[in-house]
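Section 5.1 Outputs to date
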Amino acid sequence: FDLYHRELVQTPNIEFIGWMDLASPEFQAVAESHAFVIQLGSAEGGGGSAIHCMHAGMIPVCTKENSIDLGNFGSLVEPATVENVQKVCKEVSAYE
């Protein structure tokens, strides 16, 4: 968290919420008001949080380290560079 503190907390277009109970009304409100979940893993054994968000109807933007078979649903950031994250996020934000 310390490594990415500026990007997560001090960037004006990112709202940092922190840990959230996925069974809570607060999470339900986020799921209903957001189209995408962005989970960029580097060493995960699985993307449980992203899968839960997918179950709630959100479209995943992930790296291969999340171990989620996106099939034809969602976007894969590959390779996982800052430039590719920016590119993919711009692409999905233009979806209609």
